[in-house]
């Protein structure tokens, strides 16, 4: 398990990848990480966007909602606190207002195994509808954590989405996959034509092979190389 400083570098690389994957909405949205089970975590500060964040922009936070909050912590900190409290095995969380996920979340439609990503996420992304406002309280955060359940992601209807992973690398890869799955299905729906989806046997096989830990690691390694090629300033962080 990397040290916290190394995790923050991963989170920053992940943030740049999220930006490239269409997750930007000005400076909004967050990425956070911790060692699974830890009571402390670190989160992108409120002022910077996914496209520009560096390790210096991350702020320390704790899972306990009663603890003092850093001045630069994002207002939606309770969302992360509640999910980390509910899911000890989780090591990374992404919350964004990515457009395809936002539009798909507002539709009366379920994600289908249209693509590889869809095979992972089909029927597994619930919708949270209690409020579409910014998550400002631990009560709303806890309700979202309940809607997430043991899943990978939840749509915050008319707001955005939340993606959780057992590492920040998993959370980033799954966030990129969710946006792509939503975009592809929206494109298929917009065509107005009928379309095919993978059968149940293929869905099980894809979940076993394409989303095996070793595979997710290779998607992260590719993402990491790509981001570092496009953002040479990252080399000065390590
Ligand atoms: Zn938000």
Automatic annotation (TrEMBL):
Protein name, UniProt field: L-fuculose-phosphate aldolase
EC number, UniProt record: 4.1.2.17
Family: Belongs to the aldolase class II family.
Record keyword Lyase present: yes
Residue ranges of coiled coil: none
Single GO MF annotation: L-fuculose-phosphate aldolase activity
Enzyme class of the recorded protein, top EC level: lyase
Keywords, ordered alphabetically: Lyase
Record domain Class II aldolase/adducin N-terminal: where: 9-186
Pfam families cross-referenced by the UniProt entry: Aldolase_II
Keyword Cytoplasm listed: no
């Amino acid at each position: 398990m990397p040290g916290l400083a190394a995790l923050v570098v991963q989170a920053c690389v992940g943030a740049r990848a999220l930006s490239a994957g269409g997750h930007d909405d000005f400076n909004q949205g967050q990425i956070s990480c911790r060692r699974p089970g830890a009571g402390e975590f670190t989160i992108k500060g409120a002022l910077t966007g996914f496209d520009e964040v560096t390790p210096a922009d991350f702020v320390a936070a704790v899972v306990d909602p009663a603890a003092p909050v850093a001045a630069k912590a994002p207002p939606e900190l309770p969302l992360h606190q509640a999910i980390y409290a509910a899911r000890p095995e989780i090591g990374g969380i992404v919350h964004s207002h990515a457009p395809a996920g936002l539009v798909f979340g507002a539709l009366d439609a379920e994600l289908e195994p249209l693509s590889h990503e869809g095979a992972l996420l089909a029927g597994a992304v619930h919708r949270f509808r209690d409020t579409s406002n910014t998550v400002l309280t631990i009560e709303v955060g806890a309700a979202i954590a309940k809607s997430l359940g043991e899943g990978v992601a939840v749509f915050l209807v008319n707001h955005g989405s939340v993606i959780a992973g057992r590492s920040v690398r998993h959370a980033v890869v799954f966030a990129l996959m969710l946006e792509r799955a939503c975009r592809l299905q929206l494109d298929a729906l917009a065509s107005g034509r009928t379309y095919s989806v993978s059968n149940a046997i293929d869905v099980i096989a894809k979940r076993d092979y394409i989303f095996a830990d070793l595979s997710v690691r290779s998607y992260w390694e590719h993402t990491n190389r790509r981001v570092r090629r496009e953002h040479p300033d990252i080399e000065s962080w390590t």
